[in-house]
Amino acid sequence: MSWDGYITNLTAHGMIDDAAIWGKKPGEESQWAASPGLSNISVEEIRRLAGDTNALFSNGPTIGGMKCRLLQDNSDDPNVLSMNLKSVKDEQGNTRSVCVGVSKTALVIAKGSIESIGGTLVQQVHPIVKHLKDNNF
Known about the structure:
Helix content: 25-40%
Radius of gyration: 13 Å
């Protein structure tokens, strides 16, 4: 199955600069698809994102080397199915909203444009994550 269409869909509207879909099953973590800006996510980063949320609150994750803070974990809420993160400031002083959608076997990661806010990203990521969950992914 090709997952590239999901990435194209997420990045087509200008609110999301980069996106990735990763399998998160322990021992089988793998990149299913990614845009160039998130093609450098590591297996260890996925393991942290898929692991203990309390650890993420106290020691924020990195995503493709980008340090983030976990703001909210609504991955168990069927109307949200995601975590909202915020990057630390980059060299230009900009931060990015990041949404990590969580299904049974996958993470859908969306890095917003500088103007995007977390709620906007959730609206884009949720339908994909819901589709994955509904199809036992």
